[in-house]
Amino acid sequence: MKILGIESSCDETAAAVVEDGRTALAGTVASQADVHALYGGVVPEIASRAHCEAICGVVKETLEKAGTDINGIDAVAVTYAPGLIGALLTGVSFAKGIAYSAGKPLVPVHHIRGHVAANYIAHPELKPPFYALVVSGGHTSLMKVTGYTEYESIGQTRDDAAGEAFDKAARVLGLPYPGGAAMDRLASAGDKNAICFPISHVDGSRYDFSFSGLKTAVINCVHTAGQRGETLTETRRADIAASFTDSLVRSICCRVEALYDDRGALPLVLAGGVAANSHLRRGLSELAERRGVKLFLPPLSLCGDNAQMIASQGYYEFVSGSVAGLSLNAYATKQA
What are the DSSP calls for 287-331, one per residue? Predict the structure, then answer.
């Protein structure tokens, strides 16, 4: 069964064809990173317009790469939530149009579930149940996946997501947007013990995350140095990046440790854009080794927003009977 997946939740216009939820036949991504770099972050209106301009060409190119046309597709899957509402509506509207015109089923896919499903493509042996940790620019979520379409929310961020904290820390350190990869490299050159940044805890919510205080701490650290007339040398910037990254990674790992203490051992799946961070991957790998559990990591190519993950999850949603009509709407926020 071949599923055409369409993803447009933020600043990537993507399409892919995936067979039986596990085999990626083709994928195309039109990135807007260079455009939004001028503003230091994603501008929703610009993103929406760019999706409108790119989506037809991206889908056409993907079908050509897969050696098929819309008639060879069994269903059209699309990200309907969460994300930037204008960007989501572009993808949903296009998917509804192409599904209706070709007489194909329309399958709504939650973006977070899609990130988890990227691991189904990378690891054919992966099957529920498992714990899933999704860490991205807009989300930090800890879930139990009991079935391909059955998710239990265990913990989530109360304020900033981890990826958002990375981007804001990168900006204050003078790194280019998007800041994740640059922060990763800079942190590798620094001393993680140079500065004691906070690790937050949420009262009454053992598994929930909070990164607002950590973000504020690194901003204050840089601003205080400027007010004192201190010059941020490359070594000092690297130390700040390393200390910030270490605190963020430990903040995530301590929640996962608590989960294993309380609810027992299951495999752990990492997903989302921040899953590309080498420090987080190493921290979770060490945790998994200590706990004697299997850790599934997506390849770097499937960490960021892509349509392979949407097509993969779309397959499981479709076989479970989740099909939408032309009244399908997009939602900026919605639980997985």
Answer: HHHHHT--EE---GGGTSS-SHHHHHHHHHHHHTT--B-TT----
